From TrEMBL:
Protein name per Swiss-Prot or TrEMBL: 4Fe-4S binding protein
Record-linked Pfam families: Fer4_5
Source organism (scientific name): Butyricimonas hominis
InterPro entries (UniProt xref): 4Fe4S_Fe-S-bd, Electron_Trans/Redox
Residues in 4Fe-4S ferredoxin-type domain copies: 247-275
Domain of life: Bacteria
PROSITE patterns the record matches: 4FE4S_FER_2 (PS51379)
């Protein structure tokens, strides 16, 4: 009983911290950013403060819901899908109702994979690539498991059950770097040769349609998130740049090689060879879905100077702060 009360107290403490940090960050957005990013402030002067309070409470509530490992994977997918639905609903409103629902008042292609490539097309850093890098630094691979509005559909296509057909690491790496290089070269060519925007838009649209095709055909067929872990240029960068963040995920010596974790991993990050090495493959997104199915306590988060459990809870809180802020401000 004493242990259960202690765990509940830790959950409440984490929820309060998540709520306070979320409220503080969104308050800075409300005060400092003009024109306002918070939609409630755009629709009603002063309404942004109400949105800040509601978002902070929502973030704390989510922490309590996801504090339990057994429920975390289900809630992660639920709120991630919610984020994607809200994002695309606001996009539809921005196109068909009022541009107030668009972040800048201008329409851009809602393709996350083009965010890092856009730097080469425009020849300058903008807000979204900067946010992309900050997210990787502070939450590791969370962009690909909870913060990308496209990724939610890839995860959904991969499904909960069924035999997962992985992709050989060498094959995956070859595809990823080839696609990334092709995207960058095309973006540079469009800028250097001053290709009209209409043609650049058609190429971007084709890239997006190809991504959707991979989700529908490959991810659904292989039961893995093939778009995020193999095709998406943003996903490729996240996989390697996440090592600049302090977060790590490891397989400890309690592992019995039962492979239960591999069967639930939608990112094909826990094949036998990776488990034998004691760490997931490079395409691990730190989502933590595998934690609940491991009966031996063999999987753990790591962070400088913290116990694995403390690292796990810190990662959860950090990711939920990002998620709640993204839900509040992310629009095209």
């Amino acid at each position: 009983m004493i242990k259960n009360n202690h765990v509940k107290k830790e959950g409440v403490t984490g929820a309060v911290v998540t709520m306070l940090v979320t409220g503080a960050l969104l308050s800075l957005v409300q005060v400092m950013v003009r024109p306002p990013l918070l939609l409630a402030e755009r629709l009603l002067p002063g309404g942004g403060w109400l949105q800040v309070v509601l978002a902070a409470l929502f973030g704390g509530w989510l922490y309590l819901k996801m504090f339990d490992r057994a429920k975390r994977a289900v809630w992660r997918r639920r709120i991630w899908l919610l984020f994607s639905v809200v994002f695309f609903f606001q996009l539809a409103l921005g196109i068909f109702a009022d541009t107030v629902f668009l972040m800048s008042g201008k329409l851009h292609f809602p393709i996350p994979g083009l965010i890092p490539v856009g730097v080469f097309y425009r020849g300058e850093m903008s807000f979204m690539p900067f946010l992309f890098l900050i997210t990787i630094l502070l939450s590791g691979g969370a962009w690909c498991s909870q913060l990308c509005y496209f990724g939610a559909w890839d995860s959904l296509a991969a499904g909960k059950n069924g035999k997962r057909q992985g992709i050989k690491p060498g094959t995956r790496a070859g595809i990823r770097w080839t696609v990334l290089a092709a995207f960058i070269l095309v973006a540079l060519g469009l800028r250097l040769f001053h290709v009209p925007v209409i043609y650049a838009s058609l190429i971007a649209a084709f890239a997006g349609v190809a991504g959707v095709g991979i989700i529908v055909l490959v991810s659904r067929g292989r039961k893995i998130a093939a778009h995020c872990s193999t095709y998406c240029p943003a996903g490729t960068l996240v996989s390697y740049l996440k090592y600049i963040s302090p977060w790590r995920f490891r397989v400890n010596d309690r592992c019995t090689r039962c492979m239960a974790c591999s069967r639930v991993c939608r990112y094909d990050a826990l094949p036998r060879e990776s488990i034998l090495k004691g760490r997931p493959a490079v395409n691990c997104t730190l989502c933590g879905d595998c934690l609940a199915v491991c009966r031996h306590g063999a999987l753990e988060y790591r962070f400088w100077g913290l116990s694995p459990l403390a690292a796990e809870r810190l990662w959860l809180g950090t990711t939920l702060v990002f998620f709640t802020c993204f839900l509040s401000i992310a629009r095209v």
